[in-house]
């Protein structure tokens, strides 16, 4: 089993990944994080943004995607965002509109409840209320001691970078076991659709080669994707862009995925109620599956190269009026969890 962190949403990870950020003294960064933890939310986000982007963010009149994500973190508590970060809820919403999902084999509050459960040969464990944490498992009888050792440091409270990401705070604190997609020697390609006002306009494609995946699993690296994973942004019509995320290498141009039309349709259905959301899907070729909904991509703290791409992304997102972001709560009921016996 291996622990992975696929979404890079914690600030220390963002800082470590950025070439420019590595010039920041560790002592200064540590002190700034300590101040951030004690600060009101707005100031906290300004400090974190400064550390991640090396410039002051304009959260009063935001223009870039990163600034607007931080504006959402500070202000937006609308009901439409409430359960986006609850994985079980998001999966059931995907199923309602006909989007395939990975089978949920078990869920529960304690790993002790996994004792005696029979699982397929390959499976994955993840928290229902978090992003970027996955344990790959092998074997039909889970080793609880190993799982507890792997997951004991999974945060049950917000990290400084996650602090203020409201939708994570209302998600149910559960563990999920899902079927593992792919061959076991690699993972399906991730397609992250940036959906603005119901329309997917950009796709971020991330594919980890089989040899790279094997090398990573044999290493002690806990960060996912591996440091040298090549990625590429495309328009929704699959026109390649030269934009990069942080300092990840730019991938070569790939052919149009066979499932692209179906994935675009799925992204539209899942994103139709949002002014902005990232819809994460996975595909192994002809078949695709729902991954998750992401209302706060990279916590708004990861740089894009060139910087103007951040502005381009932000130009497609019209924020709601401030007075509407704390509208009266109309709580939709959460779906029941799976039986502990599943």
N-C termini distance: 22 Å
The helix-strand sequence is: EHHHHHEEEHHEEEHEEHEEEH
- What class would the helix/strand composition place it in? alpha+beta
Low-pLDDT windows of residues? 1-24
Q: Got a strand count?
A: 12
Largest sheet composition: 5 strands, antiparallel
Oligomer: single chain
Beta-strand percent range: 15-25%
Average of per-residue pLDDT values? 83
Strand order of the largest sheet: 1-4-3-5-2
The number of helical segments is 10
- Overall radius of gyration: 19 Å
Write down the overall geometry. globular
Q: Helical percent range?
A: 25-40%
Please give a structural write-up.
The chain has ten helices and twelve strands. The protein has 342 residues and is an alpha+beta fold. 28% of the residues lie in helices and 19% in strands. The longest helix is centred in the first third of the chain and has 13 residues, at 41-53. The protein is globular, with a radius of gyration of 19 Å. It has a five-stranded antiparallel beta sheet, with helices on one face. A five-stranded antiparallel beta sheet has the order 8-7-6-10-11. Helix 2 (26-37) runs antiparallel to helix 3 (41-53), helix 3 (41-53) runs antiparallel to helix 4 (65-75) and helix 4 (65-75) crosses helix 10.
């Amino acid at each position: 089993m291996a622990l992975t962190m696929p979404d890079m949403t914690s600030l220390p990870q963002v800082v470590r990944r950025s070439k420019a950020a590595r010039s920041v003294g560790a002592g200064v960064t540590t002190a700034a994080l300590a101040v951030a933890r004690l600060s009101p939310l707005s100031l906290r986000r300004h400090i974190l943004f400064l550390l991640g982007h090396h410039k002051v963010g304009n959260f009063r009149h935001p223009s870039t995607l990163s600034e607007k994500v931080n504006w959402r973190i500070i202000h937006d508590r609308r009901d439409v965002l409430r359960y986006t970060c609850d994985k079980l809820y998001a999966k059931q919403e995907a199923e309602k509109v006909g989007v395939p999902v990975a089978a949920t084999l078990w869920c529960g509050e304690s790993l002790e409840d996994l004792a005696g459960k029979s699982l397929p040969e390959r499976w994955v464990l993840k928290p229902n209320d978090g992003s970027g944490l996955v344990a790959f498992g092998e074997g039909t009888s889970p080793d609880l001691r190993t799982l507890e050792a792997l997951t004991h440091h999974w945060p049950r409270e917000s990290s400084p970078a996650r602090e203020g990401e409201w939708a994570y705070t209302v998600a149910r604190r559960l563990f999920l076991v899902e079927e593992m997609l792919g061959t076991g020697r690699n993972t399906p390609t991730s397609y992250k659709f940036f959906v603005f006002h119901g329309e997917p306009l950009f796709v971020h494609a991330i594919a980890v080669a089989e040899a790279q995946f094997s090398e990573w699993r044999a290493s002690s690296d806990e960060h996912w994707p591996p440091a040298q994973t090549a990625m590429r942004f495309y328009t929704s019509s699959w026109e390649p862009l030269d934009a990069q995320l942080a300092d990840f290498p730019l991938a070569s141009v790939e052919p149009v995925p066979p499932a692209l039309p179906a994935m675009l349709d799925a992204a539209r259905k899942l994103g139709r109620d949002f002014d902005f959301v990232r819809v994460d899907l996975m595909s192994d070729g002809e078949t695709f599956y729902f991954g998750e909904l992401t209302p706060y991509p990279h916590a708004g703290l990861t740089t894009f190269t060139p910087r103007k791409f951040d502005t381009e992304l932000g130009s497609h997102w019209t924020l709601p009026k401030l007075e509407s972001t704390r509208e009266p709560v109309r709580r939709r009921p959460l779906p029941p969890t799976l039986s502990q016996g599943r």
